[in-house]
Design a protein that fits this description.
Blueprint: E1 5-16, E2 19-31, E3 36-40, H1 47-55, E4 63-71, E5 74-75, H2 81-87, E6 92-95, H3 109-120, H4 125-138, H5 144-147, H6 157-169, E7 175-179, H7 187-204, E8 207-212, H8 215-221, E9 224-229, E10 232-238, H9 239-244, H10 249-256, E11 305-306, E12 311-312
Length: 323
């Protein structure tokens, strides 16, 4: 099967202090139609910058320095601004972590949604408004017909996020990049949104890249997982396999730090230290300053070990399953 999205050795840099800092460092992954890929890691690991890179939204002086972003066979890393504008919203949509990055505060919600439809389709005003209304209802907005005439400031933060998700769903895109889309939502609405994304993948074959730090959501939603640290993917594979028997110490640390009902009252496990800044990234394995298994070999950059579908970047991987 040919992947809908095939990212190969993507490098995104930001100039600072006379040198280029790699926020995304030789990242490679693929996503098939109808598949959900969970992109997981701590804040600062490069997840959001990866999403912005795929959308062609990295602000100057940041830039994609090298690599390929093959979407349905076309390299988006070399696409013109006009070509990217024709794709955004129509075939590739992104739900941003902050809904105010999506919504214009001085335009009514209905105006913003219908303009999104008119940008890519020849459609009458009544039909556009009806589709906008249905999209709001789809994400759980009460009285959707009335709320089309409201402004963003009249919505709560969670409601604004639902509107942003509705806009992303309008054109039924081939690929949705969802950057922490349910962070501001209560548990009930969060479950509703996740169910809607699952239905999209099943009904329409929509591919989803779900960017998050929440392993609980990923475990019930994603087909595969890619764990990022220091701008690199350090482990990837089928969700069940990675969460049951993670190879990389960082992946294992993330999983162990999740609160469990089986250890009520016990102290939570922690990964020692903090994520290094791009300006002071350790040589070799970026995780070695926080890893109890690190030795002299880790001063070199580890390659990818394993199979095409399940691999890790570690000289001293765990071989046993989690208990």
């Amino acid at each position: 099967m040919t992947a809908l999205l095939d990212v190969r050795d993507l490098v995104t840099v930001f100039p600072s202090g006379g040198r280029d800092l790699r926020a995304v460092d030789e990242v490679s992954f693929s996503v098939n139609r109808g598949e959900v890929l969970g992109l997981v890691g701590e804040s600062g690991s490069g997840k959001s910058v990866t999403g912005f890179s795929l959308m062609g939204l990295v602000d100057a002086p940041g830039r994609i320095a090298s690599g390929q972003i093959l979407f349905d066979g076309d390299d988006l890393a070399k696409a013109s601004p006009e070509a990217m504008r024709s794709l955004r919203g129509r075939r590739i949509a992104m739900v941003f972590q902050d809904p105010m990055m999506t919504l214009n505060p001085v335009l009514r919600i209905g105006t913003q949604m219908t303009e999104t439809l008119h940008a890519h389709e020849r459609i009458g005003k009544p039909e556009a408004r009806a589709r906008a209304r249905d999209a709001l209802a789809q994400v759980g907005i009460p009285s959707p017909e009335e709320r089309l005439d409201a402004y963003p400031h009249e919505f709560s933060g969670g409601m604004r996020q639902r509107v942003a998700i509705a806009i992303a769903l309008l054109h039924r895109p081939d690929l949705i990049i969802a950057d922490e889309p349910t962070t501001a939502l209560d548990v009930t609405i969060q479950s509703q949104i996740i169910s809607e994304f699952q239905a999209l993948t099943e009904r329409q074959g929509t591919a989803v890249i779900w960017i998050t730090h929440d392993l609980a959501i990923v475990s019930g939603l994603a087909d595969r997982i890619a764990v990022m640290y220091g701008g690199r993917i350090v482990e990837t594979g089928p969700i069940a396999e990675v969460l049951t028997a993670p190879k990389h110490p960082y992946t294992r640390g993330l999983i162990r730090s999740v609160p469990s009902e089986n250890s009520r009252g016990a102290r939570l496990a922690q990964i020692p230290g903090v994520t290094p800044s791009l300006a002071h990234m350790p040589q070799g394995c970026a995780f070695r300053s926080r890893c109890q298994r690190a030795d002299a070999a880790c001063a070199q950059r580890p390659g990818a070990y394993g199979s095409d579908s399940c691999w890790h970047r570690c000289f001293h991987p765990h071989e046993e399953a989690l208990t």
